[in-house]
Design a protein that fits this description.
With 336 residues, the protein is mostly beta strands. Helices cover 11% and strands 34% of the residues.
């Protein structure tokens, strides 16, 4: 390990996950060289500190070290004061590539985990990177849906009518608090930022079966007990559709206890500082490549391709994001 004062912006080797609903957008939209797999790749874990997916540093003196090792060794120097006393990196960042729609599912909150005696709470957000024509998002119960209606139609395709439905638009975001019933529709490529959890309860898989002819396991009882039937707020956060000749910063999610997210629209270098919020920064290139450096001259620049995410250690201080193409570049910034 190096001295904490010598920490630097890092990116990690993606961890690809096969999913029955996986697609081809990571290759076709982002130009990813995906592994040859029998089942399509549906997820790329970009930042992960989990036993079933441990991110490995891909650049600099710490290349080859895991995110878990960094978290344990550097503590607040890496994470910042807002992280509190955590034993693992608090967030999980994924790319979701939905060739087919995902299951109708829900993630539990802390109270549901305690009541069920298992699981990890999971609040998440999605940012639409690209979407095919007709792609949609199902998220949140519609205002008039009752528990009885949901239980009655749970095995029927018309259960979809009980949810709020939105046409997928690149630049839109969705805030999905734990307890929200949801399904990502086919044709979506999105960036997901979430609590470090992998607890999912499937309510319905739309009658889908795998290559073995068998349906995936459902979790009806646990799922129904985890749904927050009181929350009927629209989860959609509309993105800006106009363009400007200067840098802009838009709030996406700033009231969540687990993460804060901003949408940066850049045409020139963007200066930032981790000391302002007392947290690490996650910088995600969305539609074009960017560089990240400590100085505006680009010395020792870290290159991020569209779709990649960098971890900026909390003790780094001032740094600059450098757009690498003409026109407007979209970047997401995430902190605790």
């Amino acid at each position: 390990m190096i001295d904490p004062a010598e920490l630097y912006p890092m990116k990690f080797t993606p961890i690809y996950k096969e999913r029955i609903w996986g697609g081809h957008a990571m290759k076709e939209v982002l130009g990813r060289d995906l592994p040859a797999t029998a089942t399509p790749v549906g997820e790329a874990w970009e930042i992960s500190d989990r036993e079933d997916g441990e991110s490995i540093v891909a650049n600099g003196e710490l290349a080859g070290k895991t995110l878990g090792e960094l978290t344990k060794f550097y503590g607040r120097a890496l994470l910042g004061r807002n992280a509190g006393n955590v034993e693992r990196f608090p967030l999980l960042v994924k790319l979701i590539d939905a060739g087919d729609r995902l299951s109708l599912q829900v993630h539990p909150d802390a109270a549901s985990c305690a009541a069920l005696g298992k699981g990890e709470p999971k609040t998440e957000m999605w940012y639409i990177v690209s979407a095919m024509a007709g792609a949609k998002i199902l998220a949140g119960l519609s205002p008039r849906t009752t528990q009885l209606q949901l239980k009655t139609l749970i095995d029927n395709p018309s259960v979809e009518k009980l949810l709020q439905s939105f046409p997928s638009m690149p630049g839109d975001a969705y805030y999905i608090p734990a307890g929200t019933l949801h399904a990502i529709g086919a044709g979506n490529l999105l960036l997901e930022i979430q609590q470090n959890s992998d607890t999912t309860y499937r309510i319905s898989d739309w009658g889908r079966v795998g290559a073995d002819g068998k349906a995936r396991t459902l979790h009806l009882e646990d799922g129904l007990r985890s749904i927050d039937f009181t929350n009927r707020v629209s989860p959609r956060i509309a993105g800006t559709v106009d363009r400007a000749g200067f840098n802009r910063k838009f709030e996406v999610i700033t009231q969540c206890s687990f993460f804060k997210v901003w949408d940066l629209r850049l045409i020139s270098p963007w200066r930032d500082d981790t000391a302002v919020r007392g947290s690490f920064h996650l910088i995600s290139a969305i539609n074009a490549p960017v560089g990240i450096a400590r100085r505006s001259d680009g010395a020792e620049k870290l290159h991020l391709a569209a779709g990649e995410t960098a971890l900026i250690p909390a003790n780094l201080g001032a740094y600059v994001i450098l757009p690498e193409r003409s026109g407007e570049t979209t970047v997401l910034k995430t902190t605790l």
